[in-house]
Amino acid sequence: MLDKRTHLLLDTVSALCADGSFKIIEEDELLACFPPKLPVDRTGLGEMLGYLRENGYIDMRYAEEGVYCLTVLPAGRIYAERERAARTEHKRRLFGNFLMTALGALLGGFLGALFASLLSWGRV
Fold it and tell me: How far apart are CA 51 and CA 16, in angstroms?
């Protein structure tokens, strides 16, 4: 399992190399994908790319002076697709839970009001 930064980097490389070929990508382009909450410097970027390469997620033809020639390997594509599917499933489940909770609250409120009106109607 990859950490958030490395996963974000893999997603970015996967999007840039969507057709499966090698692409020349500048270091600044890769660094721009990280939000301010997850800052990465040039050294960290190199380490993450090395980790992805060592574990068979990406292939790197060369890395010179802030320019990389990268592609995503099948293991990297499968990992990215599985993570995307897991996020989609999680969102779907959250929406389903919210919907069932809202419907249960609505039904409970309706039944409570109905019983209260029946009780008060019986007293009159």
Answer: 19
